[in-house]
Amino acid sequence: GQVGQVGSMRHALVVVTLVVLPLAAQTNRIDTISPMAPELAAYGSHAVGVRTVTVTDRNRPDVLNTVEGGPIARYDRALTLEVWYPAALEPGQAPGGAYRGVITRDPAVIVTLHGRAVRDAAPARGPFPLIVISHGYPGNRYLMSHLGENLASKGYVAASIDHRDSTYDDQKAFSSTLYNRPYDQLFVVNELARLGAAGSAHILDGLVDGSRVGLVGYSMGGYGVINVIGGGYSAASVTRSGAPPNRMLEARTAAAPSYRDSIDVRIKAAVAIAPWGMQVGFWDADGLAGIRTPLLVVAGSVDDVAGYEKGPRAIWEGAVNAERYLLTFLNANHNAAAPIPAPAETWGTNGDRPAAFAHYADAVWDTVRMNNILAHFATAFFDHYVKGEAAARDYLALVPHGKDGVWAMDREGRPQPAHTYWKGFRRGTAVGLSFEKRDPDRR
User: What confidence tens digit (pLDDT) does each residue in 338-387 have?
Assistant: First the structure.
């Protein structure tokens, strides 16, 4: 009997091991596609490579070392980028890899993320359109790594910025972020178009089509995106509390003569996720009327950081001269769609790191589900407006409220005349979402 018990114990241990190891292997994955994910959330046909690149903007105005009334200090502003791209894997080379040493919202917690990208893989033959990704305050280049990988698998080069003075381990006065966001985004567009051009002799040589660019910005990244695409700041924002010294924001106000010339026609489309600033007066009607770039605003309806009705929704309504869309996650807060799933280490022991965990999570929505929905709509939006694929528009022509869509498919899965359910969504999975469109009013 004792031998039998030992054998049973051994068997039990084997069973436990078989169950636990696959779960452990899933820790901190950024590439999970839920069975309920919409169609375009799935990874595309390209293998994905990733490289870390540093670019430096020489002689940038230095907000933090400029004193009101004194001369503008200057410095060389280095930016670290995570760059994902379509890859040509070697025979037998498996997709996937780890992002090690990733700093989290609690800088004392360093984690490893797992995804589809292969570090320094040989690139596929380009060029490919460029998508620039800009995190919040604070954040870092890994915060939207799920989207960077996903878009690269679909034939884009996606570059995510570590914004100095605005990362988890380098968070400084807010005035720097207010000033630098649009300049960082424009500089990265210009620099990657240059480094990715054929004949550059850079590791990105021939990989980037700088004539076709999209932007993604979350929170303060969204604030920068709105300004980059034509949303000039209001006059009041120049002197508000916490603004950079010496009226440094003035050059990017709607009234500045040189601002209009800064609008980059290579930027074909922009996604602003929970864009911050409207609720505190950074834009007015004249400023938002300057936006002519196709715009997708993504927001949670109970956002208590950027607002909703007076924040992202008001930006969407005010961009009267742009073809624009508003994707709303009903009852989601500020973390709607953008952040990666909370790394396991930010849960702590028995959930004792609530602040770190809450930076990534939402009280109502599952993060993987939101990431998948964002990937679906970003794919359709950029495929249509950046790549010019007409068929992608069908995924953007939807009844406004997901719950109102009618599912009417025959047994072979063909839509019937009464079918109005959101294209690409499985039956019942558009509930909790709204997707609204406005056409430009070319005045």
Answer: 999 999 999 987 777 788 999 999 999 999 999 999 999 999 999 999 99
Closest CA to 299 of 327, 338, 270: 327
| Single-letter residue type at 64 | L
Exposure string over 118-135, b if 16+ CB within 10 A, otherwise e? beebebbebbbbbbbbbb
Angle between helices 220-228 and 174-195 (to 10 degrees): 60
Per-residue pLDDT band for 14 (boundaries 50, 70, 90) equals very low
Only one residue has tokens 């797992």, namely 114
Place of tokens 């033959």: 125
Q: What is the pTM of this model?
A: 0.93
Q: How far apart are CA 269 and CA 153, in angstroms?
A: 19
Cβ atoms within 10 Å, residue 176: 21
For the stretch 63-82, pLDDT in tens is: 999 999 999 999 999 999 99
- pLDDT value, residue 17: 35
Q: Which two tokens stand for residue 321?
A: 């001269």
pLDDT given at position 374: 99
Region of 129 (left: φ > 0; alpha: ψ -120 to 50; beta: rest) is beta
CA distance readout (Å), 434 to 36, 342, 399, 430: 17, 25, 8, 8
Quote the CA–CA distance of 232 and 159 in Å, as a whole number.
24
Total number of residues shown for the chain: 443
Residue 313 identity (one-letter amino acid): R
> What are the E-state strand segments in 245-402?
267-273, 295-300, 324-329
